[in-house]
Amino acid sequence: MLFCFLGHLSLAQYISRSEPVPYDCPVVCAGAGLILKVPQIENFPNGTVIQALLSNAAGSFANGTQTLVALRYSFNQGANWQNGPFAFNGNINDIYIEYLIPATTPIGTNYTIKMKSSSGYTANDLFQCNSTNKITITNPGVLLPAVPQDSAGDGAWNAHVYTWVPTTSAIINTPTLVNAQGFFLSANYKGYNKYNSLNLDINLSSTGGVPGSVNDGTSLPCGTTYTSNFSMRLLRKEVFAPGFYSFSIQGDDGIRLSLDGGITWILDSFIEQSYPNSFKSTVTAFPNGICLSGNVDMVIEYFQRPADARLTLNVVSISGGSFSQPDTLKLCTGDDGSFTVGNSVAGYTYQWYGSQDNGDNFVTIFNSPIYGNVSTNELTLTNVPLSENGNLFYCKISGPCGNPLYTDTLPLIVAPPNLSITGDPQNQNVCTGEEVIFTFPYSGVGIFQWQVDTGNGFEDIQNSGNISGSGSGTLTLKSVEDIYNEAIFRCVISGGCQGEVITKEAQLKVKPFVLPDAPNAFSPNGDGINDTFFPVTSCNDEIFKLVIYNRWGTLVFESESIDKVWDGTSSGNKLSDGIYFFIADYTSKAGELRKQGSVTLLR
């Protein structure tokens, strides 16, 4: 007899070595995700979770390893994702799995990975990339604060990042196809990068996509990358010294430049293209340069499809010189000084103007014992008297740019040798709603700043609808609030040629405007004790009215002055003992109140 035993055939479990997406050895932020491509997974029990084992910072699996949790997985190379860990239910090839690097993972450059499973299997092969087979884990850093999508950087580029979904697989190289794309939809806004340099060479292909490591800060969380189908609108407010400039741009893919906030594009290469073929320069249309002076609203728009991602901007001054704004001039009485507008440039003429009435009228300045070089780029001042303090100055520059150029209007500050303090601000007691004025008696030139401490330390006071004079010697609170009760007001004044700083303080007590506690009985018997009845608030009343009625509702007393109190009489006649009723109305700057009740007259 032939016995045939059919045993269970067990196939070997297997997970091939993984590799990162993209294939470069990655830099990953602690707390961010790492995408791994796993070529083969075979022969696990259904439901087995496919995991990853992260080494310690030294690259060893002896101790300190971490089992990574999968965030999501994709069967079609990231085109579509399913959330959660991947559980085995059949042999599979080329799956993408994104694992979370724990936020508490120490930073380091020698991490590596082995694949494992929840059934206990651990691969022998380390993951591989194109060089060291190592993972660098970095600190997430400090993110820039969020800003509106239309915000421009002052002297810096705010590069606002968007994603977009192409409407076609064709090359986007016609105006119709360009206009059909939603490059800058608000719903697809992701955040922004900061680039300080005016000239740009941003190669996002070499830095792993947006936000990239070559920038001066970002609002996108560490680990965020966009490597295809993204766009950027770069906005910058730049102050150009008067002169002529040329501009050139280049990008893969679309790129264009505006100098008027995006109204017109002086350079436009906004189509899908290679980087070498995209070069545009203003030299073609403006061989002598573009004349600029002062604030310019610059805009660059850029979009990218899969493949390379790079954009450049090059700005060159071709005027032969430059103008920089003069600085505010601060002098001591009797000093010499000067206002200077950059370097003197051939072909330009200069004329200085001044005002002695706070800018209402400017007149041409002529050479004098005080002023010299009035028709050059440097206005000199000699032995300046205190009477020149606060005068305003600007320079008119005429040259080949056409219309004259004007510098900023700047003050001349002339300080006496020392500060002169003639008194202190006084403590004050007021009622809610009243006006308060603190004065710091001072003569001379100085810079004022009032501060207040309501219990949490001193803070600078800012002018508002209720507060004025925060930067002067007189601070006014038009209607004081209860929050300032027991507050300390401090005036800080700095000035003088020795750099003195003097502080003076005063306390404010604020009485609340509340109803009084009226006595419930009084005895007008002439003994000098409790002879009158008059409910008075803690604050001064602008309007007051008190009326007294007997129990039958007859008016027996009326007063509209705190000096006229009820002594238990009516028209000069003594009233009998008993209960009387009163109504007291008060009106102050803090509002209106009414007190009513009864009082017993006892003789």
Textual characterization of the structure:
The chain has 603 residues and is an all-beta fold. It folds into five domains: 14-138, Immunoglobulin-like; 153-317, Jelly Rolls (Sandwich); 329-414, Immunoglobulin-like, CATH 2.60.40; 420-511, Immunoglobulins (Immunoglobulin-like, Sandwich); 521-601, Immunoglobulin-like. It is built from one helix and 48 strands. A hairpin with a 5-residue loop joins β38 and β39. The radius of gyration is 40 Å and the shape is flat. The termini are far apart.
Judging from the principal axes of the Cα atoms, what is the shape?
A: flat
The Rg value, from CA coordinates, equals: 40 Å
Class based on secondary structure composition and strand pairing: mainly beta
Please identify the top-level CATH class of the largest domain: Mainly Beta
Summarize the main sheet: 10 strands, mixed
- Averaged pLDDT, please? 88
Straight-line distance between termini: 135 Å
> Strand percentage, roughly?
35-45%
Report the strand count.
Answer: 48
Low-confidence stretches: 1-9
CATH topology assignment of the largest domain: Jelly Rolls
Per DSSP, the total helix count is 1
Question: Could you say how many structural domains there are in total?
Answer: 5
Q: What percent of the residues sit in helical stretches (DSSP H or I)?
A: under 10%
CATH architecture of the largest domain: Sandwich
